[in-house]
Amino acid sequence: MSEADAWLARSRRKAASASVGPYVEPVGRVEQAGDGIAEVSGLADVRLDELLRFEKGQFGFAQALDAERISCVLLDDADSVEAGDRVFGTGDVVRVPVGEMLLGRVVDPLGRPLDGGEAFTAKEWLPIERAAPSIIERDLVTEPVQTGTLVIDTLFALGRGQRELIIGDRATGKTTIAVDTIISQKSSDMVCVYIAVGQKSASVARVIKALRSHGAMERAIVVVAEAASTPGLQWIAPFAGFSMAEYFRDKGQHALVIIDDLTKHAASHREIALLTHQSPGREAYPGDIFYVHARLLERASKLSKVKGSGSLTALPIAETDAGNLSAYIPTNLISITDGQIVLDARLFYEGQKPAVDVGLSVSRVGGKTQAHALRDTAATLRLDYAQFLELEMFTRFGGMPDARVKQQLKRGERIRAILAQPQLAPLSLAEEIALVTAVQDGLLDEMPVTKIVELRGKLKEALTASAEDALRQIDATGRLDDAGKAQLRSMLKDLVQ
């Protein structure tokens, strides 16, 4: 049989086995469209959160189901959806591409490139809504996340699998702490996902520029749903970013997710809820706003050995108004997370940066995740600093403090000086241990506070030159033996002199 005859025989068999008959596809109709919401009729079998496709190529998902209509949240090109347009059900939910090809890229919440780079083809897609790991699938949070910010790593240590809220007024350094944390991971095994929700284009551009200039973009994914995006894109952005990070967690790797910020995400949820005629509650938010954020942040976890020992750490950001932590969204997020880093506007304007309020901030994991050498060195640091702040307040009223109080005040000023840190300059673990050792051993007591900045700038070079063994121990194990401690102290004395 010739090749042509074989092809003809295959075609006849294929045609004979094909089912012939009418194909029925339900078609809906847009009754009304506006403000990123489309009211659709005629799709009786559509389920909640199902992805819908419009005849001009746009997509949306079913947010509310009524007896006669579906309220569909539009995901892109909302202005071109008009009344009378046809709508089709897909039988699927919103999915995003996941994988290593996203590293170093800037994408929108649907995984479409925004950085002008080459388009990519995803081998795997995951739904944006995924169940959080069950209790039996989780493990204890014991491994540290090195943020590079001294005040956090020493006083409010974070662990892999933790959820730590960064909260404060507008323009007090919340995003700076998050970006410094990402930069600190450029030489670690953590993949970072930065999710910008409702941010200005200029703010997002500054973050991307900082990550690229410090070489941290190669192991990071930036998901952007800026303020000009549709409410639907802003709403799905955190869920999409978590799915992208979970791909790495489920492979036994470690991921860090930063959501900037959940206050604007709550506003987009409220906007969608009011447009779809859901009943408003406190501050006009719908009753399920707590559930939305709880089911999102519960996806952060440290998996058990059976599940691969991967981890997903979440650093959500929230904005307060005039420092009001008792507002609706801040109290919700504080109760969901495992602690909060509170930034104080008064400290910020006084020049104490990062402006972390050590009285209101807390980590509910804390020292369990700290590197052993840092935990030993900083054991009394928080208590000493808290006592200094109290004594400083009382001495403002006058009076002559005794010698012991003068010494406490002198030591406290040095603690405050080492906790101050310029932005985009995260410290290594060895540098943090060295700074805390210097102040706790009293080596900085006679040094002018203005000179501590100069000492910090020379510290890295001095560690490499004169404390190689100590540096090697810290990098390898996070611990220091007696010989390493002695070498570190000797180097610090020489540096101070």
Shape: elongated
Query: How many β-strand stretches?
Result: 19
- Helical content (DSSP H or I, runs of 4+): 25-40%
What is the typical, i.e. mean, pLDDT? 91
Q: State the end-to-end distance.
A: 95 Å
> Main beta sheet: strand number and arrangement?
9 strands, mixed
Would you kindly provide a written description of the structure presented here, covering whatever features stand out?
The protein is an alpha/beta fold. It folds into three domains: 28-93, Elongation Factor Tu (Ef-tu), domain 3 (Beta Barrel), CATH 2.40.30.20; 97-370, Rossmann fold (3-Layer(aba) Sandwich), CATH 3.40.50.300; 375-496, Lysin (Up-down Bundle). The protein is built from 16 helices and 19 strands. The strands form four sheets. Strands 8, 12, 13, 14, 15, 16, 17, 18 and 19 form a nine-stranded mixed beta sheet that branches. Strands 1-2-5-4-3-6 form a six-stranded antiparallel barrel. A two-stranded antiparallel sheet has the order 7-9. Helix 12 (403-419) runs antiparallel to helix 13.
Short description:
By secondary structure, the protein is α/β, with parallel strands linked by helices. The protein contains 16 helices and 19 strands.
Features:
497 residues; alpha/beta; Elongation Factor Tu (Ef-tu), domain 3; Rossmann fold; Lysin; 3 domains; nine-stranded mixed β-sheet; six-stranded antiparallel beta barrel; 16 helices
Question: How is the topology of this model organized?
Answer:
Blueprint: H1 3-17, E1 28-34, E2 37-41, E3 50-54, E4 59-65, E5 70-74, E6 86-93, E7 95-98, E8 106-107, E9 124-127, E10 144-145, H2 150-155, E11 158-159, E12 165-168, H3 174-184, E13 190-197, H4 201-213, E14 220-225, H5 231-250, E15 254-260, H6 262-275, H7 289-297, E16 301-302, E17 311-319, H8 328-336, E18 339-343, H9 345-349, E19 362-363, H10 372-377, H11 381-395, H12 403-419, H13 429-440, H14 452-466, H15 468-477, H16 482-496
Helix pairs in contact: 5-6, 7-8, 11-12, 12-13, 13-14, 14-16, 15-16
